[in-house]
Design a protein that fits this description.
three-stranded antiparallel beta sheet; alpha+beta
Length: 169
């Protein structure tokens, strides 16, 4: 026999209060007759499938932590991003400025507009510049230099203990 949900009260005082919630006596009688005619056994699965949840959203949120988190995440307003004032950036046209250049002083001799190559591991000076500065003898070195085009060059030698001032520093 199919069970019905009953109203929960302190104590029933009349037959009216003993009636199941949302059901009338005639509907219960016809349902009981159908059950007795169809099958003499109680169908638990059929009874569970015909049941409907009688729960409020508030009860669901209070009882189920996961549902509460999902609901709060869905209802949360996205934060407004703060507008930052960016500094004014001046863009140089299509002109290529090339590598930066500084003035270098070697042993009191000023050489202007020397390109800076901060990526090199060795400081290289041409033979013409070394002779112009008065250096004629070099210390020999076993090193072989690999240039940017992957060609290999053997230097004339090494100059040590030079006083060099770069950019006035």
């Amino acid at each position: 026999m199919k069970t019905a949900k009953w109203k929960v009260r302190a104590a029933p005082h009349s037959a009216e209060e003993m009636r199941p919630a949302n059901a009338s006596i005639k509907s219960l009688e016809t349902e009981a007759k159908k059950m007795s005619v169809v099958s003499p056994h109680y169908d638990v699965v059929g009874d569970l499938l015909s049941q409907k949840a009688n729960i409020t959203v508030q009860q669901l949120v209070e009882d189920n932590k996961l549902y509460r988190k999902l609901l709060l995440a869905a209802l949360k307003k996205p934060k407004r991003t703060k507008v930052k004032n960016l500094p004014i950036v001046f863009q140089v046209g299509l002109e290529n400025l090339g590598s930066p250049k500084v003035d270098i002083e070697i042993d009191g001799c000023l050489i202007k507009h020397v390109p800076i190559d901060s990526g090199s591991g060795v400081n290289i000076m041409t033979e013409e510049t070394t002779h112009g500065l008065g250096y004629m003898k070099f210390e020999s070195t076993p090193r072989v230099l690999r240039m940017a085009d992957q060609s290999r060059r053997r230097p004339l030698g090494v100059l040590r203990d030079l006083i060099i001032v770069i950019g006035g520093v």
